[in-house]
Structure prediction request, 1487 residues.
Amino acid sequence: MPGTNLLVPVVLWGKHAPTHCVSSVYLSRDQKTLVTGCYDGQICIWQVDPETLKMTPRCLLVGHTAPVTCLSRASIIQSNIGVFQDNNFIVSSSEAGEMCTWDLVDGKCRESVKLSQVHTNIQAYHMCNSEDLRLFCNGYYAEILIMDPFSLEILFSLSSKMNPDWISALHVLRPSSRKDDVVLAISITGTVKVWSLLGHENKQSEPIYENESKQIRCLNALSLNCCAYNQRTVLIVCAKYCQIYDAGDFSVLCSIQAPTGERWMSGDFLAPDRVLVWSTEGKGYLYRLPANKLRGRAISSSVPDHKGFHGPTVEHDSPVLFGILAHPDNKLLSCPPAMRFIITSVGGKQRRLLLRGDSAGVVSLWNVDDAAVPTPNQMPSHAPIVMTSLDIAWAEMNPSPVGILDQLNIPDEPEIKLTASIYLLAANRLVVGREDGSIVIVNATHTVQLQLLHGNHQQLDDWPPHQLLLGHNGRVNCLLYPHHVHQRYDKAHLVSGGIDFAVCLWDLFSGALLHRFCVHAGEITQLIVPPHNCSTRIQKCICSVASDHSVTLLSLSERKCVTLASRHLFPVVTIKWRPADDFMVVGCSDGTVFVWQMETGHLDRVLHGMIAEEVLAACDEALADDLGGSLSGGTTDGLANPAVHFFRGLRHRNLTAMRAATQRGLAALQHAGPAGGAGPLAEPARSRRAQLTVQGFRSNPADPESHILFFDIEGLIVELLSEEYSAMSPASLEAAGLITSEYMKVAALTQSASPDATKRISDFFGRVKDKAGDMERILKEKDKHGILAKMKEGAETMQTKLQAKAEQLKSHLETKDEATQGKRQRPRDMSLAEPPHTMEIAQILISLLHAWGLDPDLDRVCESKLGLLRPMVPVCFGVVSRHGHMAVQLPTWLGSWADACASAPDDPLLITSDLPPELLRQEKLTRLFSSKLHWELSTTLTTNHLLSIVALANTLMSMSNASFVPEQEVMRRLHRPSTRSSSSWAADEEREEQLAAQQAHIKQGWSLLATLHCVLLPDKVVAAGAKSFKRPQVEMLARRWQHHCLEVREAAQALLLAELGRLGPKGRKSLVDNWAQFLPLYTHTESINPYAAPKEPVEKQEEEFEEEEEEIVRKPSSLAELKRKQTTAVVLLGVIGAEFGQDITSEGAAGNKRRKDGDSRKSSVVEGFTLSSSNNLARLTALALTHLLLSPACPRLPAVTPLRRAAVDLLGRGFTVWEPYLDVSHVLLGLLEMCCDADKLVPSMTYGLPLTPQADSCRTARHALTLIATARPAAFITTMAREVARCAAAAASGQPSAAFHALQKGRAEVLRGIELLIDRMHNEVAELLVEVMDIILHCVDQSHLKSKGLNEVFPAICRYNQVSHCPATRRIAVGSHTGQLAMYELRAGRCQSLAAHSGPVTACAFSPDGRYLVSYATADNRLSFWQSTAGMFGLGAAQTRCVKCYSTAPMADVARLNPARLARLVWTNSRTVTLMLADGSETRFNV
Prediction:
């Protein structure tokens, strides 16, 4: 899953806690975090109070598709608390072979792999000679795998020589006297093996065989533990008995039988002579071992020697039970619980705990230390010290968490459970199937507002509007809206499958039941859409699967069953299609595959074994891509767990659409959608990203559904801007700069003055305008009063344009209003004709993300002017990480803030209100949450949420009148006089002013909102009393420096710069030190970075800048991670250099380079960098950036990627810093190469929609050129002039170089840059006029100068009095800064230079007939006349000589201050010239 997608998941959990049948447990060493994995594949993270051991469920990690069998820590926990906080990682492994590394703080999945080996046990162990932990895994395979916990790569494996077999248990330890690690393991056939490891093993080494092995009689051992206290005894547990062995020769010392009716699970040593063993009934048994048995083996070191030590025991040689750990109620469990013996250390004191999680989701803890001391003559049973479960935590919540349809609950009756749901984006409808067979359809944004936000919508005097479809008896299992999956289906059709064996076809608009298919003999578990390339008859069908193992194809148009495939003996697991052969391929849970013909319903063949797998693999198009509807596993195991499908569906259906990121320019924007009618009401094209997706989610088939709302920021921004642009007329589009004509004028100069080029350009604009014209026509049809027609006549001034827009908005509103009135007459019915709901989605999202309560004045503006709504409940957010894994917060952990909430000040208004106490408490908690707690959750959430809200605020600020307040629209309508004819223009103008003022207020409001979140938030949150504000993450922002969505890109850049600014020089220095080691090297000197020194330059693989981060910069554990780190390092150091490089005092010749980098390198300079070590980092960063700009496109670094764009952007921004280390001409030519097609691709600089990658690169390169030109105009001009000269020489010799092509293609860009420079830096350009003229004459096509004067062709340069063009003789003269006169003869294409003055030439001018040229310089106060005498008939060299010279009066010093206006020369006739000085004096001179 691409990391660049900004998704904000929000979860509505509902009244019922998710089922959590525990399959594995883990408690961190510091007693702060408990992790439980369950049989449904979710993992729950609990926050534990280290003192009281009170546990609060905090978040749910979703991503595994099978029971989680092992949980293990992933990092070495240092004693100091600071490091521990960041190293909070855990590794989980499931029965399907999936392994994930999770960040426990914010729940992101850092890495995930799927192995063919399935582990049954993982032990984390810190090997000698290695910095990191290693995971020792054993399972259903014959080796022991040693894995890296962060990259999840297999580092090496231990193999067996003697009777290789599956390893059933292992234990790793370091003997006290030796330096190496010893691995002790036992295979399922009872062979004990020993390996010893030195710590430098790796994949390349020979197979590592055991050092010794011995056969003993323990078959199928469950666990093996070596006594930590003396390392001489080993406890091996089997189901029926456990035995203590001597570690020296593996002879049995004693054995313990399992209690009757119970089986052992595992055990551990508490002391040299005491063990704790636990059984499948979830009880722990404490045994004391017979001392005499132990004493015979040299263990006397740890067992006191004298006889009376133990007191007389009756049976001397069998272990004695002296305590039991059990639940007092002794409930029966449906499956063996997960148990673990844990040693924790808090505040320097050790505790020993037994942890148990059972099938009812109850987690219990026993304190083993209490029970470990035997009391004589009695056998106590100890109860757990803590017990809790998700259900208990849910029950403690008052009021209980919100669900998505809570408004339909009747207060005192039990709630009807929701069992299936599907969201229709185009119609903004949420369709929900329920336990009682009813299907409810509600307005999705409205129902979300009802649950989460305060506002007028809460005052309902009647039921909220909804539609009920009644037709199923009993639970609705699945829903499908086929039109969403493919356009070929009828828009009105909705299909549902129930527990009553029926599939119902509904008309969505009327709510009528069109047909009821009763074909199956079991409940319907799944509905699927066949692929679009099937035969026409099958195309009208949908496919349904039922629990009687049958599959049918039901034709929606013929209303009958086309094919019934029902001979499967086992539950159906997969369905694949071979449309070309008319085959439907059905895979069952026992591995058989049935191939059916679709048209005839004939069973073609049944396959088993390998062939079956190959056939399935051959049907590439898996059903998962077309999971159109919501799924419910019903009671069958067949289709696995719905949560899996939900993720598969999410991954394939929505995210592929999201990934095809709306690459279309302005033209595509106004295409009529496939729906026929274009315009704002058209259905969004499939390729667009869904701004909102509502997914039903359940952790177990038996649970009711919770719902997750995925807000896609980019999709939302694209929709907002599309709606905005589609409502604009061509005039206003042009005014907004969305169709530019000025740029085209410049571009036209570089083409030869041929008619077809101009025609092409005008065609392009014609097309764009036609599209806009269509839009207008549509608007006109909607426009009731012909306002637009009237507006068109006077739409010249800007004011009327403003009004045009207001009126258009109004005409939309009218249609809206009629719809709402229609609705009032039929309150219960939901019509589907509604205006676009993008604004409502944006309103909900910004209201949820905004930090309410930090700035009361801004909050007032938000509520009154912008129309945001305050949240009602604390929101449960989620984080989507790579691989489509996700973490969602549980509502219960808000309870852990009750104390913080109690200490918060009370709002007097709230206390006086008559709310019940629990709602008061909730309101207080909500306010506390949005102002403070929200920003203390995790750095990832802070970063994503700030990015989202800043990007959206900027988008809305760029739109006209983007407010969510309905009242303003009402006001605007009241203002309109009742009849058009009587209305005077004066009233209109007054209204105009009001509109403009209101618009300004709204824009200012959005701007303040963006500023709050971008700049002020951290200080305000801390001021509000946050103890642990989680700062936005610099790395995540750096990765989005060139995000493909422009608004997100700008937000990320603003946030990153604000954060870097806030860090201050010290913070930036430490950041630089952290990341400098990852800077890739493109030099031949030694490598700074010990890990990244491959011989060829390390080309960065671009993974769309994947998300993945951590606070402490760890050593990368895999190559991919190293590459990600390198890309981040380049961008981050580039940004710091470019933006903060100048604020450090310059040192020596290196100039303005940041000293902190120098220092950071001096401390660890590698030899080979003796050459001015201080500016080394700047040099490396500059080299890395230029490499990214110039390296040719290849598979690892394609031509257009965000990474390359970032390099281009940073080269431009920090040009002054990088310049000493760059080859400027290479960089400029590289940039020109990138933006040579800009005129075809980029609509305009202000365009907000995502551009195609090519256009985006053009835009960035163009911007970088502008920045470089303005930062160092002299360098730009001289380099360009040098290249032009080189090109001219190359062209003359007939061998055009690559540079020549770059210049040819980039001519328009160069001209644009020069025009800009003349505009902004008049005086700097004046010093290099001759070079500038060289460049202009190279770039402008000469044919233009035949017919037109220079002032028409390139007016900017004619602002200089030192430039003169004579069209008659086709010559151009330029007076240079050195006193030379350069004469260009365009006919001959050559240039000659005359030494004219001793100082800079101030002005020059040709006489009207072109015979004379006059030049004047203030430096030597001379005015000279020059005449060109051509040779005979224009043959021979033209001689230019000075005909006459005058001395002029010296100028007053005051007048010299503005050299541009110093003096002008104007010919009054062919013999007389007037010298006009800046002080107004005029002097005439004659030739």
